[in-house]
Amino acid sequence: MLNARAAAKHLPAYHPPLAGRQGLRLDFNESTVGCSPRVLARLRSLDAETLAQYPERESVEIQLVQFLGLDPSQLLLTNGLDEAIHLVCSTFLEPVDEALIVVPTFAMYPIFAAAEGANVIELPADKDFAFPLTDLLQRITERTRFIPVANPNNPTGTAVPREVLLEIAQAAPNAAVLIDEAYFEFHGETLIDQIGCIPNLFIARTFSKAYGLAGLRCGVLAGPTEQMRTVRRVASPYNVNGVALAVLPEALSDQTYVDRYVAEVRNGRKLLQRELDSLGLPYWPSRANFVLVKIGETHSDFVEALRARGILVRDRSSDPGCHGCVRLSLGSLQHTQTLIAALREVVDELTLGEVRA
């Protein structure tokens, strides 16, 4: 009888609530305006011959390393940022190894680590989701081989200072330290300048958020040349589809479009947080394109009340330390203003003022 590995049998299932997403989608941190018109024009120009060919990522990687200021040997295009995480785990984790993961955070870190049979050690964040540096440093051992840090973090929107990230990498020389910069554009701070300077540091980025390309699944993993040489052996030679490779250069070349959208999100973030202050709803100041809000016991009613008004938001109550919390994604200023108007109605409808008091 064929049996799956024990590690695979016991993996927690991740089921994102994607079905029936009708309305203003502020639940998955996607772009609310979509990709650049130049990307759409390139999509429309694709012919049957292009789709019949196996994809070649090298020429696009050369353009990307020029954009990021790296060497071609330090970078790999991936099938979304998820594959970047998966490849790091597959390359460096053995069943006897440990992964140190501060929670709450992106759900796929422990799943990919556990899939390799590694022992996943989850460390709770400090008060107000502050990064527990002291606790993490104390848990590092010779078996520690993977430490992922989302910066900014999802679902909290909190960020870890640069010097803390560098200290982690230096304190765990046997571990692949992966800094997930999925929300870099909205944060504006990066460690990509340290690629090649620190032998165990990796950076992952995505084009799903600010670039509006979530449906094409395109990400990037950067790391030291020697380590990336091994990662490439693990990766499929055709891991990124030809459509994504065809349009990515257009997305990169239209930074005016991306910058304009990012500016709207940042302005909307200020407006939303100011409104939450006015409404008396507790939240955590965010560096990403979303804000985590503490609703309390009526969190399910809150989500449904917004859905009834055509706005989708994400209940994060099942995340560690997030009971009663709802994540509100940000988009264009117009969409953020629509959200704010609905929030005022829902707060009044659910008498959240009494809860706040």
Task: Describe what you observe in this structure.
The chain is an alpha/beta fold and 357 residues long. The chain has 2 domains: 111 residues, Aspartate Aminotransferase, domain 1, CATH 3.90.1150; 217 residues, Type I PLP-dependent aspartate aminotransferase-like (Major domain) (Aspartate Aminotransferase, domain 2, 3-Layer(aba) Sandwich), CATH 3.40.640. The chain is 42% helix and 16% strand. It contains 15 helices and 13 strands. The protein has a 7-stranded mixed sheet with strand order 2-8-7-6-5-3-4, sandwiched between helices. A 4-stranded antiparallel sheet has the order 9-10-13-12, with helices on one face. It has a two-stranded parallel sheet with strand order 1-11. A hairpin with a 5-residue loop joins strand 9 and strand 10. Helix 4 runs parallel beside helix 11, helix 5 runs parallel beside helix 6 and helix 12 runs parallel beside helix 14. It starts with 5 loop residues before the first helix and ends with a helix. The model has no long low-confidence stretch (mean pLDDT 95).
Q: Strand percentage, roughly?
A: 15-25%
CATH uppermost class of the largest domain = Alpha Beta
Widest sheet, order of strands: 2-8-7-6-5-3-4
Helix content: 40-55%
List low-pLDDT spans. Answer: none
The CATH superfamily of the largest domain appears as: Type I PLP-dependent aspartate aminotransferase-like (Major domain)
How many domains would you count in the coordinates?
Answer: 2
Strand runs, count? 13
Reading the helices and strands in chain order gives HEHHHEHEHEHEHEHEEHHHEEHEEEHH
- In whole angstroms, the N-to-C terminal distance is 60 Å
- Determine the structural class based on helices, strands and strand pairing: alpha/beta
Radius of gyration: 21 Å
Mean pLDDT: 95
Examine the coordinates and then state which fold CATH places here, giving the name of the CATH topology of the largest domain: Aspartate Aminotransferase, domain 2
**Could you give a short account of the major beta sheet?**
7 strands, mixed
* Helical stretch tally: 15
CATH architectural type of the largest domain:
3-Layer(aba) Sandwich
Shape: globular
